[in-house]
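Entry under discussion copied across for reference:
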Amino acid sequence: MTERGAAATQTPSTTGTGPVPRYEDEDAESLGEKLADLYARRASDPRAKVDDVIEETRRKLRRGPRLRAGEFLKDGQYRLIERVGDSAGDATWQAWDRAGERLVVIKEMVGPWVAKRMRVGTFLEAARTLQGLEHAGLAPIHDATQSRDGFVYLATDWYTGGRLDAFDGDAIDLLQAIVEVGNALQVAHEAGLVHARVRPDSVFFDQSGGARITDFDLAGEHVHGDSGSVFVAPEMVERGAQATAASDVYALAMCALYALNGNRLPYTVVRGPERFIDGLTIPDSVKAVLKRAVDWDLDNRYASVASMIEDLLTDADVLSDLAQRALDKRRHVIASEHFTALWALRPGESVRIKHVLGQIYLQMQTWEEAYQCLSSALEETTRPSPLYPDLREYAQGTGDWKRVADLLWNQARNRPPVARASMRAELARITEHHLDDPRGASEVWTLVVQDHRTVEAGAEALGALKRLAEQRGDWASFVEHGQELLPYLQPEHRPDVQYAIGRAFINELADEDQGLVWIDRAEAGGVKPLDMAQPLQDIRARRSQWRRLIGLMRLEAENEPKVHAASRVLLRAATIARSVHLEAEAEAIYEDLLERAPQHYPALRELARMRHRSGRKAMAMEAYAALTSTYEGKSEEPEASERSADHTAYARLLVEAGDVEAALGNLEAALRLQGDNIEALRLVGPLYMDTGRMEEGAQALEQLYTLFKAVHTEGPRLDAALQRADAAWYRGRLAVGMRWYNSVLSTVSDHDRAWWGLARIAIAARGGHPGTDRAPWLSATPAAYTAHEVLARLFMGLFGNEALNAWLAHHPLGDGASKAGDTTARAACAVVDVLDRYAFVGPELFERLREGFPGWVQRIDAVEGLFDGSTESFDIADAYAWSRPAITKDFDPTIDRTFVPPKEGLYGRLLVELGSDDVWDVLFGGAQPEPVFVEAPAPAPTTAPRNTSRRWTSSARAASTSACRSRRRSR
């Protein structure tokens, strides 16, 4: 087929009659398409009267004695598409067979002999003879006839796989083609037909790669050869020579040499073929066959193609290559022929060859041949297992499983143990799964257990016995076989069997103890008991196996696709873990739950509280932050009290971290949810005051005390009363503050904070606090003395009002306190309050005082000793003298007052900047006046020695001073 012909096959016709013909001109195209339409019309409507128009159109399309593209033959069956070849005696056309809807080749016989009736008769008779032959290598002839208008032609298949003159395969493919063409020629020779013009262009390939011979000299036109062709036998060049089978042998061999030499053949090969053949890269046996096939001496040349092919296939290696190549190309008929021949040449490979033949016949669905080959191979082999899949395929294709089962049973009897066990194992599989005989399968598997010599065989047999026992409900045997099976299995496969044994003990044999032993082993090996999750949970709960119970619940949740259902299971598991004090497990469960539902507030709440209780404050704050964010946009109910508690706990952590504003925001949210939240009120009141919001703080403390009236324990009520008194003091309401401090002292007579509260109210009143002249009863002297009062008197002696108030202005609490009463006495008391509140009363403060006022070092040491607990030798009368410049009328120094040692501050320390050098410098930076020292009367003698256990020596004080200076420089 030419390139042009190939192109023609790709263009569809507008009339639906196959490819569009290659018309010579526009007139021919117009007539050809009209003719196609007419034939199509007659085909669709047999009653249409178009025959006359068809004849008239055919005559117009015809020009001269030769056919043209677009014409039809056999009353419209064949439409000529394109001329694709010419020779002396014929013309070759690509045509469309409208009846078969396929491309065909039309051979149009031309030349003077067409006019000879006898020659035409010979052609038609030979064509019909060839048409009656059956061989795959012969191109089939669909028609051989003479048209009404005298054209002699025949129609054959159109092949798309190429021709031998353009061969691009290897030597194996070529030899296969030679074998197929040779066998086809032999069939023709036996029918009395000689090809007479075998050439590379007369050998075609179909789509599967099969070789086809065409272009027989049916007319007898080539009775003698062309002396210029290398494919013509030497004896044919003589005039009058007749083509014979031997001349076709010669031509076929020369075609082989042509393809082996890269599709070219010099004419010199005719005179010296032996040397040329020796230079080819092919097996020696093939060379010998080709040399004999092209021998000029007819006595030496093969007299028939059959003998040539027979010699070619006597080389086992060549035959093996041909067989494998045919198998690779799925040419099963060819492969079966070659492997059958190879079986005779290589009896030592009979098992393999029979097996391959069986597989080929299975592909061809020639079932009996397949069975015979496979059963014969099975009988000879010592390794039967490779044959099982093919025997199964045979049984599947025929439905005759019993025949295969009988074959295995009979052949297994006299085999060695390994082969016998293998064949019986296959028999057991077939018996169980395809013959539906579980009892028979159990019997055969039992025989396999007795015969097995490999771990695999034993494992399979015991596994099958276990499975069959389960199917018939024999659970004792199931457990027994399962336990026997375990040693045969790889470690990674044992847990599944262990789990099955445990499940059988629990569900079927009612033995929980044994069942849990096996279940535990299986779980340790990684088995997840999903199908037993609920029963196992009940069992483990009864036995208080809490960790395993929790693990099952987590597994249940892990495999629950619905988030809500999984969350419910995990929350229940965490509750159980907490109830049995498995805190780590509970926390891990909450974390798992939050991975699936990040806003699950019960889990966030419990996780935050657990971390808070264990002191992991940073992690607790993260959880509280996430928890409180889930409340945004939700109604206050339900669980308003829980939400309020969450906000309060978060606020406490924020206070410790120094984030006062965020803490206040959470406390306010807590009180909106639950107005009587005592913990929130206890926190929010002091924070309001710390931030200068005095009135809001006082209101919170008032509400707190109101709530505490119903509390029967003294501690909360005293705290509330003390905080209310402090609030009154900070707001400048001295009479109210004195009443609340006295209420505390009426319950706890040595309460140092209450005595200090009364003292600072008395100091403020005598220092000129606004409104004190209308309350002369404020001149009452407190019955106890505190270190805080001494420190306040020291500050009144050292600092002026301007410096004290300037320092207080650096913090909202101090600034608010100074605004409630702007006197030196009140400011000094407020400074002490703020310093104590934020834990700044310590070594650094006293070192700064000593550095700033070296003339007062002895008295500063005495005050520091009070805070260290040394109260026995302190001279109270001396301290009165320090504050005299700021207080016009002070207490009577002759009154015997009890000294109350200081306790830990009421509030925790907040992160504030009061301790910076810049803030300290406001107090110590030179703006203060020169201190006035007033001598006090000599103190009364005492017999009690002064406690110096916590006082610093001069060397220790110098070291502390240096350290404080270093810290200030580093800041």
About this structure: The CA atoms of residues 538 and 549 lie 8 Å apart.
